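Hey, I was hoping to borrow your eyes for a little while. I've been staring at a protein lately and its backbone has me curious. You're getting the sequence in one-letter code plus the fold written as tokens. Would you mind checking whether the tokens look sensible for this chain? Here's the protein in full, and shout if anything looks odd to you:
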Amino acid sequence: MSEISRIAYYLALIGGILLVISGLLSLIGYNFSYFGPFISFGFGYFGIVAIICGIISIIGSKSVTSVVWAIVLIVVGIIGGGLGGILVVLGGLVGLVAVLIKKT
């Protein structure tokens, strides 16, 4: 593994871990706020989406040097948002650069 692909791997991995942590904290913080028994169903989706995006990022960080996974990580990072999402997008972009450097 070259140095640039290792950087992409670490960026995507750390971003995925941050997405999972922020999603869990969002769900925990959401559970302590009370808006009523029926109104509160729609507000917990950000935490669930962040956790799913984080898990996909952690799994995909191993294969960040393939074109398909780099594009998937960029899309997942955009959907996840936040600091973890930015790191995942950067990891995907660096993974694409690593693929282009390897081909030339």
